[in-house]
Amino acid sequence: MKLTRSNMQLWKTMGLILFYFLFDMTQGDPQLVHVIPVENPTYYAEYRCVTEPEVENTKYSWRRQDWSGLPEGVKAEGDRLHFLKLSPELDGIYICEAVNKNGAAAGSVFRWQKQNHSEL
């Protein structure tokens, strides 16, 4: 193969593509996010947002799916979501968004308060 200017440019481009591919692979695996119930909650109910792999300096944000934020009676503190009361108005899907050096991902939990009905 004769080395020409266009061949050199092609090899340079191929090298850059390979470099970016390998560089991207070393930045960490894509993260997974899931929400788990907390045993012995400090309030009526509590959930924790967990990332895999766990990474320091992860920033968490919580919202209810059909709201721009959280309804009254629900409080977010970092990776924790606290239900300050039990009420059917708080039923719904809650989403945790986690952002860290590996990127951003979200997990969710469906919260449903079992209701006791008495028949007369």
Automatic annotation (TrEMBL):
Swiss-Prot/TrEMBL keywords: Signal
Keyword Oxidoreductase recorded: no
PROSITE patterns registered for this protein in UniProt: IG_LIKE (PS50835)
Segments forming a coiled coil: none
Domain of life per record: Eukaryota
Signal peptide: 1-28
Residues of the Ig-like domain: 30-100
Zinc-finger in keyword set: no
Name listed for the protein in its UniProt record: Ig-like domain-containing protein
